[in-house]
Every structure is written in C-alpha cells, then in structure tokens.
Amino acid sequence: MIIQLFNKLGGLVWNLIIVVPIIKHIYDTKLEHLQALKLLRKILASLQKSDNSTLLEEVGASYAMSDAVKNGIVEFVCEIVKYLPANMWRTDEDDRDIFLNAIVHRQENIFSLLYGLGALKFRFVTSHDKFGNNMLHLAGMLAPPCRLDRVSGAALQLQRELQWFKGVEDMVPPVCRVEENEGGKKPRTLFTEQHVDLLKAGEKWMKSTARSCMLVATLIATVMFSAAFTTPGGTDQNTGIPLLLHHMSIRVFVISNAVSLYSSTTSVLMFLAILTSRYAEEDFLKSLPQKLIIGLSTLFLSMATMMTAYAAALAALYTQGLRWSTFSNIFDCLYSCFPFRFTTISSPS
C-alpha cells in the first residue's frame, strides 16, 4: 500500500516537473535522441543480416558515416562500427579515414575512440591521405571557422590549436613528426604557416585585453591605497587610533582593503608580464593563458573586496540605521559578483 502511494506521488511529481518548459524541452530532446538511436540500431541490424555491400552504398552508409564524423556524432559512429566493422576502414575522396577527418574537423570525441582500438591504433596513426599528409600534418592545418568560433578570443583559439597539435604529436610515432608531405613541408612548418594570421590576431587581442584590465587594476590599487589612510569615522588627534576601532565593521574594512590592494597589485603585475611577453607560439599554450587567468581572477577578487570594504565602511558610519547598512551590505556583496556572471573565459581542457 505504501509502495503504491509513493509510486503515485512520484508519477504526480514527474508530471508536474515536465510541464516546466525548460525541463520539457530537455525531456523531449532526450526522447528524440533515444528513439533515433533505436531506429539506427534496427536499420544497422537489418543491413548486417543482408551482408550486401551494394545495399550499403544504396542507403549511403559511407556518406552518413562521414557526416557523423564531421559533426562529432560519436554515438552514430560507434553504432556503425559495432554492426558494420568494415566501415571503420572506409576512406573519403581524399583517402582520409574517420580519424583523419576527426582531426581535420577538430572532433575530439571521435578522435578519442582511437585510444580503445588497441593494436589497431598503429594502423591508423601511420595513415596518410592522398596529399601525403599524416595525422600531424592535418593537426597543423587551421581548424574550420565553425570550430574556431567555439572558443572566444584569438589567443585562446590559438591555444586550442596548439593543444590539438600537441595531443596528436604525442600519439603519432616520432618519424611522423619530421615527415614531409607532397608539398615538402613538415608538420611544424605547416602549423606555423597556417596559423600566422591567428598568431598576430592573438597577440593583438591579448595586448588589448591586458591594457584595459591593467588600467582598471591600477585605479583600484590607487583607490584602496588612499583608503587605507582614511579610516571611516576618523582618528583620535592625540593617539591616531581610529575612533570606531571597536566596531567589527572597521576590522572587515581593513582586511578587505588590504586584500583588494594586494590582489589588484598582483593583477597589475600579471598584465604587465603579458604586455612584455615575446608572443611566440609556445607562449600561447600555457604561459600567456595562465597569466591572463591569474590576472583576471585577482582583478575580480580586488573588485569584490573593494565593494566589501565600501559596505563595511557604511555599516560602521551609519550604526543607527542598522537596516539600511545591512541592506547595503547585501546589495554590494551581490553587485560585486557581477563580473563573474557577465565575464566568461573559455579555457580549453
């Protein structure tokens, strides 16, 4: 009886949940995905039983496989390879298999399937297309615009490209790293030539961002430095001790002021290090993005603690209006979080 009651309550709650538009959209999308996967399995099972290569061409299995790789539909690729393993060896008009195409279109989910092939992996990592390009050559080519635009900022786009190149470089045999294609170019040379414009754009973007943020950090450091010598409520003219020293708000003010000053100074140093960098290709892999993240993080911290110091000063000065100071404190703490909500940095994993 109790179990039935819980089942009815669970069903009622679920019916209420799926009425919410966002949840209903997710539910419908997931349902369509599962239905499409079931349909695909039935089609592939029928093709597997027929064992007719002509039928495979008629239904366009190879084209479907190619489109799935280009769009990163890993479930589709896995199901085709599971039911029709021979399709894993199929190549397109450029003699590129599924893993070479995965590199060209920067589909990491498809490329990661290579790790589960065991001994067969060597067969794929040493393959070439009709232009003599191996995996590392294709990783050195510029990614399609639709994949580049998934990362904001030219500098972070170049970082993503370098991560792809390094990842493929660790996968292929050492001989592939110095191998030349039909154009007589090695993978590293091809990467440099293909990304020269992106390198210039990344340098420009990084310098522009660093200058703007360093200006803000400098202003915060200047304000917080001067605020350290103007304690709210004033000081005793004889002893120099703050008159409101016994208030907890003053202690919060002092601590927040110090944290804001130190973090803004750190931010200035990080952005200064970015501006004085040599801007080589390798710098965009780790050095520059790390400095940018540290600089922005400390800048946001300095802004948050600056607003906290401001709220603490108000709370100390307007002790009679407790409700107002409490409201101001809450408002300023929420407002200080705005940079985190409206500023997004894409850091590829």
From TrEMBL:
Q: What is this protein called?
A: PGG domain-containing protein
Q: Which organism is it from?
A: Liquidambar formosana (Formosan gum)
Does the entry feature the keyword Transmembrane helix, yes or no? yes
Enumerate the spans annotated as PGG domain. Answer: 203-315
Q: Which domain of life is it from?
A: Eukaryota
Q: Which PANTHER family does the record match to this protein?
A: ANKYRIN REPEAT-CONTAINING PROTEIN NPR4-LIKE ISOFORM X1, CASKIN
* Keywords from the named record: Membrane, Transmembrane, Transmembrane helix
Q: A Gene Ontology CC term for this entry? A: membrane
